[in-house]
UniProtKB/TrEMBL annotation, chains A, B:
This is TetR/AcrR family transcriptional regulator. The keyword Metal-binding does not apply. Residues 17-77 form the HTH tetR-type domain. Keywords: DNA-binding, Repressor, Transcription, Transcription regulation. Transmembrane segments: none annotated. PANTHER family: HTH-TYPE TRANSCRIPTIONAL REGULATOR RUTR (PTHR30055), HTH-TYPE TRANSCRIPTIONAL REPRESSOR KSTR2 (PTHR30055:SF175). It comes from the Bacteria.
Length: 204, 204
């Protein structure tokens, strides 16, 4: 702590980072609402009550904003799974936790942007980076399913198609979820995960 | 039948319609491969070995092409369900048939275009028309699920969330399916539908 009225360089850095995230979050919301191509930097500046030159202090261009939004979304999807995997539970229990956390992320700005916009508008190099992140998430789902089948906690199935089927069902929530709609993200996650665990066919 | 070397107006109309569909199909493939915004009318003309002015004989502009691709895709999704519903089977059996047919459609050009591109690039009026078609498909899923729960052929669940979960899982196939990949669309449909029917949790 210092008595100086000037901010320390550490404070300035963290303040800048905080504002940068606010820019990205506002942009992600705009992209999710009206689409990437229908959103201009002017629109983003207007939503933040700043001028376009102010934006350039935090970001280079619209492509960089989208790249960062999708990258952060994918990292949150990945850490949502890393946090629950390897704590000694059954693969089934871990998969339930990962699936539930996944819905939580895709119903927030950055995760939603991964699904609603994705990497298509970006350069091949950016797309490659983001696809590598996606692949890591897919492999986590797949290896959990494989482990579950081996230990008997998950029914026999094709792990690759099962991983895509689960990710598809859960990702799709980002397409239709409305933050001010009648159902909370938690309730949607519960119902959707339950269906994927138990299936449409009545038990017993 | 006529001996005239000139085509009848009926023949000319059907030939024109056939070529128009070829234009739309080629465009849908390009949109699915590299994205709507990365595809120009010149690209489409090149893929068809025709000039851009030739394209204008069949379509007005790129927006009209996308509208038609998505409209045809949605109509095929809807007729895939209409064909199997109401033939006296259980709601469960009908839902299995609808889900399987759904994967068949989203792995073809027009159905794939519904999922990979969608209506976002279009005008509000076009989007409204296409959303109304989507809603009809969603309501079919939902009413089948409701009927199945009532008759006991489908496990108790939230019909709205279940309909979105199924549609999401099956639509997602369009995102990752590769026509020249190792698994056929039929095999993917079988595995994916089976998982949704039986769930991840082992039976018995």
């Amino acid at each position: 702590m210092s008595d100086s009225p000037w901010k320390s360089s550490t404070d300035r850095r963290s303040e800048r980072e905080e504002k940068r995230i606010a820019v990205l979050r506002t942009a992600a919301r705009a992209f999710n609402d009206v689409g990437y191509y229908n959103t201009s930097l002017d629109d983003i500046a207007r939503r933040l009550n700043v001028t376009k030159p102010t934006l350039y202090y935090y970001i280079k261009n619209k492509e960089e904003i989208l790249f960062e939004c999708v990258r952060i979304g994918l990292e949150r999807l990945e850490s949502a799974s890393s946090e629950v995997i390897g704590h000694g539970g059954s693969a089934y229990d871990e998969l339930v936790a990962v699936m539930t956390a996944y819905v939580g992320v895709v119903t927030m700005e950055f995760g939603m942007c991964v699904i609603r916009v994705g990497e298509e508008p970006l350069t091949e190099e950016s797309r490659r980076t983001l696809r590598a992140l996606k692949r890591r998430i897919d492999l986590k789902f797949r290896s959990l399913i494989e482990r579950g089948i081996a230990e008997g906690s998950i029914a026999a199935c094709d792990p690759k198609i099962a991983a895509f089927t689960l990710a598809g069902a859960l990702s799709w929530v980002a397409r239709w979820y409305q933050p001010d709609g009648p159902q909370t993200a938690d309730a949607i996650a519960r119902h959707s995960v339950d269906l994927l665990l138990n299936g449409l066919r009545p038990r017993g």
